[in-house]
Specification:
alpha+beta; seven-stranded mixed beta sheet; 5 helices; 7 strands; about 30% strand
Length: about 150
Amino acid sequence: LVWWDYAPETMGYIEQWLDDAAVKTTGLDKGFRSFYEYWANEEGYIPGENFWCKVISKDAQPLAVIAFCEYERKVIIMELLIAPEKRGQGMGTEILKELLGNKNIIGFSIENSEAVIFPGNMASQKAFEKAGFSHHRTHEDGDALYYVFRKGPA
């Protein structure tokens, strides 16, 4: 896998990945660029320092985009979007495992990570579980599942 920084002005193809299924299971109903610009300009977040958005490719073909930040000594995975033609092939798990196991992606080793997943998003639940995350709790409204990853002994 090859990882590079997301560039909104040159990566419009990512918006095309937001089919009905993706919009239903992510928080990207206003588009990925809008999501990125919101967080890249949010006070306290500095792209490349404590907020990252990476496009992942394999064999020179872009296949996913992931956004995450460092907050309170944890890496929070905010969004992971797989290209429609690559869904169901284990790409999400592969990307998560590489992110968690390769300190060169962001310059440090990830010891703790968290993610929030919509209850109906079974593909993401499975991908995160296969990558080493576990379900921690469900929001009291039942509309969000909280997943955690801890490196080393529990």
